[in-house]
Amino acid sequence: MADSPVTQMKIVKGDYGYVLEDVPHLVDYIADLPNYPNPLRSNPAYSVVKQYFVHVDDTVPQKIVVHKDSPRGTHFRRAGPRQKVYFESDEVHACIVTCGGLCPGLNTVIREIVCGLYHMYGVTRILGIDGGYRGFYSRNTVTLTPKVVNDIHKRGGTILGTSRGGHDTSKIVDSIQDRGINQVYIIGGDGTQRGAAVIFEEIRRRGLKVAVAGIPKTIDNDIPVIDRSFGFDTAVEEAQRAINAAHVESESIENGIGLVKLMGRYSGFIAMYATLASRDVDCCLIPESPFYLEGSGGLYEFIEKRLKENGHMVIVIAEGAGQELLSESLQSMNQQDASGNKLLQDVGLWISQKIKDYFAKQNKLPINLKYIDPTYMIRAIPGNASDNVYCTLLAQSAVHGAMAGYTGFVSGLVNGRQTYIPFNRITEKQNQVVITDRMWARLLSSTNQPSFLNPKALTEAKKKEEEFPNQLDREDSIKGPLVTNNNVLLT
After folding, report:
1. What is the CATH number of domain 11-229+383-427?
2. pTM for the full model?
3. Whole-angstrom Cα distance, residue 390 to residue 384?
4. Lower Cβ count inside 10 Å, N or C end of the chain?
């Protein structure tokens, strides 16, 4: 996808260090755009809701842990329905596209966008783009109605299909323009949202009245700013099944080792939270925390120690961990997939064989290792209760934002509140586990494993902490809303 000039971020400054990183609006580049009363005024479902419309000045702070002299800091526009909308219901022609890898909750987001448009705003023309970005110009579309999407949340995957890369910005916008589409809902990870940002820029350059809204998706939870991405809670829950199987296998045989590889290309959140939730894991290895195999304080030494103490152990490793230890002579070390992601070696198979070889060579502690890789099983399941509620909030917030004329934004949860976040904040960097923070310390305390950090690595980790201090504020809490009996999201 070709790059185009990026619109300068809308910044609004106020007293006491207040900074609003605002999202674009259609009126920014279309003069004299008419607005209309929000049809929710006459919607019986919302007639009993007090103060249902979000005030124009409502914002949500990015940082909530402050001192008495702290400036008010960065804020984002609060999501929700506005009193005025910039589309009439019969004027709207919306489309939905899913891109990138699978993730629990994709079908729920599709369903709730369709039902939100239809039931809240009376929109009846909604298309599903088949096969990701390329589907705009090379595949058929699917007509979406509440009846079509009624039960799709009970299925994994996406009814619209998906793909990585291979998209052409001009052709996509040509297709949007030719079909008369004026609302585009894009569900995908950081690569997908980078593509969405470029599509928005081209739409703006052409002066089209088209709202572009993103719903950020990544099972790895590596999207910055937001509290968590949908599907993450389900992934952690499902990972427990694999860890439990590894634990049963390992404790059923002498010197048993259960090794589980979980998703986490660059960020070890699934591995970390699954380990904390499980209580059966003896060692967790993630991309952010370097480890070494041999010598004093190394992984081999720890495995031997734990087997002598307990007679068995469970190891969880994220797919991106230890990549620097794998042979650089392997062909795929510098290859990328269609989304530009580095192709990783199977660290699970590699480390399994390394552990087997080491103890076979030592010839003093016979081990029995079982390797479990549940990667595609986890991402192919439907969302759990918590994620389904979260997907509903994300989808409805995106619909409210597009109807209100906002564009070039993603819908996301920040400090427990639904917000609209500019594309560039979502794509500027990846969220990672901060290994000098309390959450990682809690894991080390829970597993009683060594940190494997040598003095040089520890110095580098502390330096990174100083460069990205805001991550620490978010690391100190579990990144997943809980569903109560009243379906209230708690953080």
Report:
1. 3.40.50.450
2. 0.88
3. 10
4. C
Closest C-alpha to 234, from 224, 222, 219, 218: 219
**26 pLDDT tier (thresholds 50, 70, 90):** very high
Cα distances (Å, whole numbers) of residue 295 to 192, 292, 298: 43, 8, 5
Do the beta carbons of residue 227 and residue 474 sit within 8 Å? yes
Q: pLDDT tens for residues 36-91?
A: 999 998 888 776 666 789 998 999 999 988 888 889 999 999 999 999 999 999 99
Whether 220 is catalytic: yes
Whole-angstrom distance, CA of residue 153 vs CA of residue 109: 8
Kindly state the tokens that stand for 448: 């009683």
Q: What angle do CA 59, 407, 108 make, to 5 degrees?
A: 85
What gap in Å lies between CA 196 and CA 409, rounded to an integer? 9
The answer to whether the Cα torsion of 126, 127, 132, 135 is positive or negative is negative
* CA pair distance 66, 83, nearest whole angstrom: 33
Q: 232-381 domain in CATH 3.40.50.460?
A: yes
Spell out the residues 6+ positions from residue 37 whose beta carbon is closer than 8 angstroms to its own: 83, 84, 85
CATH 3.40.50.450 segments of the chain: 11-229+383-427
Q: Which residues are annotated as a binding site for Mg(2+)?
A: 190
229 touches 218 (CB < 8 A): yes
Nearest Cα to Cα of residue 250 among 340, 341, 315, 343: 315
Q: What does the H/E/C string look like for 242-293?
A: HHHHHHHHHHCCCCEEEEEEECCCCCCHHHHHHHHHHCCCCEEECCCCCCCC
Please give the annotated binding residues, written as ranges: 101, 164-165, 189-192, 218-220, 263-265, 319, 376-379
Residue intervals of the chain classified under CATH 3.40.50.460 are: 232-381
Contacts of residue 329, defined as CB under 8 A and 6 or more positions apart, other chains included, come to none
